[in-house]
Design a protein that fits this description.
By secondary structure, the protein is an alpha+beta fold. The chain is about 50% helix and about 10% strand. The chain contains 15 helices and 12 strands. Strand 6 and strand 7 form a beta hairpin. Helix 10 runs antiparallel to helix 11, helix 10 runs antiparallel to helix 14 and helix 12 packs antiparallel against helix 14. The longest helix is centred in the last third of the chain and has 36 residues. The radius of gyration is 22 Å and the shape is globular.
Amino acid sequence: MNLQSQPGSGQSAYRILREADLRDYLAGLPAIGAQLGGAPADWSISEVGDGNLNLVFIVKGGSGGLAVKQALPYVRLVGESWPLPLSRAHYEHMALVHQARLAPMLVPSVLHHDAPLALTAMELLEPHIIMRKGLIEATRYPRFVEDISTFLAQTLFFTSDLALSAAEKKQGIADFAGNYALCKITEDLIFTDPYRTAEQNRWTAPYLDATAAAFREDLDLHVAISRLKLKFMASPQALLHGDLHTGSIMVTATETKVIDPEFAFYGPMGFDIGAVIGNLLMAYLASAGHERTPGERASFEAWLLETIEGVWAGFSRKFLALWRNEAKGDGYPSLLFTGEAGAARLEAERQAYMARLFQDTVGFAAAKTIRRILGLAHNIDFEWIADERLRAICEARALKLARNMMLEAVSYTTIGAVTYAARELRHWQPDFAR
């Protein structure tokens, strides 16, 4: 069921809903009331949002439940001093609709959307857990590689010039072009602030003080991150989720759901793929900080490295298969590659394309890692390591890997080279730890 914004009780002027307000609001939506079941007075409503931007409510009735997300007119992490447009809820809703069409069963179903309230009601994902929290507990997810590689291949290929006509692609870019405020957050927090003195930056002090200072003075790194920033701003290859980390993925042993695409826009494919891989690398290098006894997580860490390799391998295989079998777009027109020689030359170009995409992926994975350690919004992979010195050791390993990946991306020609480098740094000790 996918109910769009409805007239009457389904729409109203914007106001921030609290639990009592939400109860009254949902009671005025017959389809939602029927799904929840029972009397509205008996519905349980709890605000569970632990993200940086929005309110999130879990609502349960006698017959079922749902999740309700409402955008706030400011960044929740910071407060009203950082205003943010409510239009991001519109782009998130559009992205969810697109993703549901392109990657069925891998995103939550939209049950209701109210544009004026910047509110979306979605299926309640239970017993799913935020993947990042599961990884901290060393939980393995056997479906994840298959599901996330499918999500990436399907959503990226079918919104690219390889699948769309030029007119369709340009219309898609136009549809999401207004989400520039969320893009600006990315441009600042990922590609600029960690490399300069910024009021909102933070890191595990005093242990990482010297590293943070070195990153602010490293002109080679500044050039590399600026090239990535320009690619992010000027390469609308496909419709991106825009914030595809392990906190935006909910999982069970048998199911994967991608949530929270409010940063969606048309950008470089490697940004989404790199976000997944970068966050898995952080989970790997943070794992030592969650050990109770040395080596107890070794098997889990090996699984994490296999998962990283599997994400790229699965994506690459599926993306190439789509290109070979579903290429109806205006990119690489088939009439230019006729005959046996043409087919061979096009296949060689496909492989070259994937090599370039992998280089982008490596760089963006590094950028995502650095921002989560030296910038504003951090990962609980590291933050939940109570011993600050141990946390800083894990973070220093991740920063060392990320810096090398960003500056030497061309030397990482395979995903195995990335996991090898991570494995080599697993026991490396920074100067402050020696």
